[in-house]
Design a protein that fits this description.
This protein is mostly helical. 76% of the residues lie in helices and 0% in strands. About 2% of the residues have low confidence.
Amino acid sequence: MSLLIVSACIVLLLVLILLRINPLLALLIVSIITGLSLGIPPDHVIKSIQLGVGDTLGGLALVLGLGAMFGKMIEISGAAQQISETLVRKFGKERLPWAMMLTGFIVGIPLFYNAGFVILVPLVFVVAQTSQVPILWLAIPMAASLSVTHGFLPPHPGPTAIASIFKADLGKTLLYGMILAIPIAMIAGPFFARFMKRIKGGEIKPSPMSEITQLPSVMLSFSLALLPVLIISLATVAKGFSDWDDPMIRLFGEPVFALLFALVLACYFLGWRKGMSLKDMMGFLQDSVSAMAMIMMITAAGGGFKQVLIDSGVAREVANFASTLSFSPLVLAWMIAALVRVSVGSATVAGLTAAGIVSSLAQGPGVSPELMVLSVGAGSVMFSHVNDTGFWMFKEYFNLSLKQTFLSWSTMETIVSILGLAGVLILNRFLPV
């Protein structure tokens, strides 16, 4: 019964948005109706929504805000234009999706999905504008790379926590995950992106950097644009050595600190030293955050909807139903994670829920704990839709309709999930357990 209620509420949400109700209002209205319909006490519904909004913004607000300001400095200084022109020269126009896939993969390994997404979005727009190519032709390879690294590779929080539950070796998990991630990113990224050329979404507005006559150097542009990634990567590597692991290194490894540090340097090298006044710089940064406000609120409302579904017990109900089915441990783990993901929206909740239910199976004979981690990770990214904050980020950033978002983002995530399961089953046939 709960699943029927959730399905009906999702249909209602789609109807409201198709009627051009603001997604923020539609999400809040449907969250309240869903909570009441699923039996959450009336005085707790709003508290549940607020908890989800708070959790979402708590982890996203500073990253989104600093990422928007950092991207703006990279944009208005001409650094993004320099990067895009260099990529076009080196890869050629026809191979740009491969350039974006590679960039997304490099960025996605050390950065959390949301931080990497925010950092790379300005680059996607600039490359698309400079090359005059469809925005989704470049956005899909970037998002696919970030998705596979988020779902399969430690030190991302989901795979790391699941590996701990399964008592899996992190080194083996990372190695097997890389074997899966690279071909999956290629198929769900550049190959799938070929079908996105016909989608017209993501209007590209003229950028003020088109008027810049003297661009920053190639070295300075790439160095500053990738600085947050470099800082976090080095901090992540250092954490693996006990002699180097100290509180200061862990501070540099935080995405918020890395973005803030990179933003200060960008303001100095790309703004102040180039003759830009402090007043103009602060004005640009304020505008970038103002433009981000609605995206942040819609994303946060998506988090509120997710929390209502979690508090109602839908995730447990779905997981308990799936656990009664007779499948191999790898398929069962993927199925439970996928069902919870589709029902609740959160990849992390889906992964941890599935891992908790099938954790005992990972210790059984003939079962690889590392492959169980990857199977759950693949299931946790299955068919992202309106109850997932990532769905709304992709939709709003690239100015897409619901239909376009389903055809691009949701389909890409489904490809990653199904190929992930297929890859795990193939590895299971050849790897020693």
